[in-house]
Amino acid sequence: MAFPLPATKTNCDASTDDPKQALLVDLAQLVDKFNQLLGAAAAAGPLAGSGITDAAPLNSPTFTGTVLVPNASVSGGAINLGQANALYQPVGSYQAALGYTPVQQGTGIGQSAANTVKIGWSAGSRIKATIDVTDMGNIVTDAYAFAIGQTYQDVTASRVAGTTYTNSTGKAIWVMIMISIPAGTTGTVTVDGVVRWNQFAQAAATNATATFMVVSGGTYSLSAGSVQANGWHELRT
What we know:
By secondary structure, the protein is an alpha+beta fold. The protein contains 2 helices and 14 strands, in the order αβββαβββββββββββ. The protein is about 15% helix and about 30% strand.
């Protein structure tokens, strides 16, 4: 805020009975009062009337308020530098405030810190990853990984030739069938409607073993007829 230059009253202070001269005297008094106001405003500074009472002009060598000297005391894992309501937290205390251990991104061996890694739960109830804007697909966990949490099980008693079974375990399974094939007969294994294994016994009965994988939700069966399953084992949950 710039104040106007002080006003002057030259030739305005003559004392006379002339009304015009009396008016000039009054004007001169107003000029005095105006100059007094200018002086008071300049002394108060640009913050006059703002309600701020604890500030000092930049060119003032005297500061107002109480100067607090840092005492570097430590309390509850925080460093108090002497300033009221100003606690400076050391790095380790941020994790405690979070309540969990955060994951550090892009600082591992051979990793790029320039890319953004996003991990979330998909509408298909799977964990998915996105790098920047590239969809990396589902992340395979133990719940879906083949041969993890699965064991070989003898299911011979619950399997018969000519019946189609569905893998409803949520994981791929591995099937092994010991088959007895009469002479002149072909034994076949069908997976998802496609023949994946077959063997023909020409002159004499033959024993054979069929092994194959069935994806989650897939179907599988052993051909019907005189073919028999002497043993049926599955790697499954």
